């Protein structure tokens, strides 16, 4: 499952709006992080890599849970924004295919809304290399709940397929145990302005020429201003956080 040149370009487009990303993208529920790390929870001095860390949405939750985080992110603009927002965090330029850490040095590698950008054929062995025995790899995704009418309306405006499941996005790999999945309810308090600003951080929107991007964001604003659930200006955005995890197989497994 290698990424095409076009996907690679989109995967590194977020930095053109790093400040917007930091301000408007959601964090992750504590229970989702705890579930992801359950197989290594008892270890002392737990060290976790936030891979594809962006501006630190997942780093924030990990640090709040008292966990030592090493952020790894390929885009310097995103990494710099992360460092600005998270005092004293260890943050490296690197990618899922080249993690700048020694062999067997961390307990878990987590990725928030990022695993689908990785070249999984190269990423899994690289993640396995940096994990200690029995270490965890986990992918978390925050997805807007498209069963909600006003969000389904947004999807229609975008013309996107909203049916991708975690199993479509993350492949089973022989170095790791069978994938386990679960999901959690999450949410974000939004205003029309913040929702439009959040939409402006999505990679397909960042890829549009300015005129088409402005037109799309105008249509989103009109939709929010006209829908009964959002027209009053402040509303909850319902999010489903899905988590997929697996453990590094030992030589005897
Ligand atoms: C949608 S953002 C997610 C950021 C953050 N983890 C979050 O939860 O909001 C995807 C991030 O993955 C990074 N990325 C893209 N390709 C990558 C790769 N091959 N290895 C690691 N990170 C990658 C992008 O630069 C971007 O910061």
TrEMBL record:
Transmembrane segments: none annotated. Keywords: Methyltransferase, Transferase. Residues 1-23 are annotated as: Disordered. This is Class I SAM-dependent methyltransferase. Pfam families: Methyltransf_11 (PF08241). Belongs to the methyltransferase superfamily. Residues 1-16 have a biased composition (Polar residues). PROSITE patterns: RRNA_A_DIMETH. InterPro entries: Diverse_substrate_MTase, Methyltransf_11, rRNA_Ade_Mease_Trfase_CS, SAM-dependent_MTases_sf. GO terms for biological process: methylation. One of its GO terms (molecular function) is methyltransferase activity. The keyword Transferase applies. Residues 49-138 form the Methyltransferase type domain.
